[in-house]
Amino acid sequence: MVETFAPAANVWAVPEFFRCIVVAEGLILCCGNRFVHTTDLCLAGAVISSHYLGELGGRSCGVHVLPSQLKMSGYDWRNLRSLLTSAEEPLFALAGRALQVVHWDRDHRYCGRCGKATQYHPSERARTCPNCQLTMYPRISPCVIMLVTRGDQCLLARHANRRNSTYTALAGFIEPGESAEQALVREVREEVGLEVGNMHYAGSQPWPFPGQLMLGYLAEWAGGKVCPDSREIEEAQWFHYRSLPGIPPEQTLSGQLIRTFAKQVAVGEHP
Predict the structure, then answer these.
(1) What pairing do the DSSP bridges indicate for beta strands 170-173 and 195-207?
(2) Which CATH architecture has domain 141-266?
């Protein structure tokens, strides 16, 4: 049976951890391409906080936070993105949740309204200000990621702030007061000057860089010429499904959207 990660419902019911991610200064302790996810390491006295995350394969999981990166023979400290294509999906989900919880805990030790030190909420994953009662939960930022299609072609772009030459689907944050579909139309118009018509929801993916929830769509071209916004998009063009450039790995929602489109066109399922 394939193990799946189930996030915690009761965050303060902290059992003895069977698997535990170790984090320091935003990096994860690893052994090669594997997360260190057991309590075999001797970390007594070094841990400054611990958080229960949920269950993996029916066993409890958590994260231990260290104040700095300890030098340990046979281990190294890795950023999460470098492990995207090598870590098993359940462990990657566990590590992504671990980092988001750690960032929330670090960034909300003081109230953003009155400046007082915050305290843990008694029953929820939250920090509360005892002075003004402001409650701070882990931040999740919803985004849309959309593959614009035109017959047997799809629109792919290279982003101006990316170091590699990978072509990917368009994406953007949902603004206050917007639906996901409204954000999709606006982002496509702003980034490449196109109008889109039929939209089909394809799936979602948590994206812990640092805390997005990606909502994926296939959207049909409805008019306009490609005119990239040079501030965010360096280049954008139509590609035939049989002549795709370098695209993101299948572990990403962008890579899944592109591969889904290509498969659908190949078998005649895409409209």
Answers:
(1) unpaired
(2) Alpha-Beta Complex (3.90)
Q: Which residues pair with 171 in a beta bridge?
A: 145
pLDDT, tens digit, for every residue of 40-85? Answer: 566 666 888 889 888 888 888 889 899 999 887 888 899 999 988 8
H helices within the chain, ranges in order?
89-107, 180-192, 253-266
Locate the domains of the chain by residue range: 5-107, 141-266
Q: Is the pLDDT of residue 2 over 50?
A: no
**What is the C-alpha separation between 114 and 134, in angstroms, rounded?**
9
User: How far apart are alpha carbons 190 and 13 in whole angstroms?
Assistant: 46
Q: How many CB atoms lie within 10 A of CB 127?
A: 22
What pTM, to 2 d.p., does this model score? 0.89
- Pairing type for strands 19-24 and 59-66 reads parallel
Give dist(CA 29, CA 22) in Å, integer. 5
- Which pair of tokens denotes residue 106? 């670090």
Domain 5-107 belongs to what topology? Nucleoside Triphosphate Pyrophosphohydrolase (3.90.79)
Decide if 84 contacts 28 (C-beta within 8 A): no
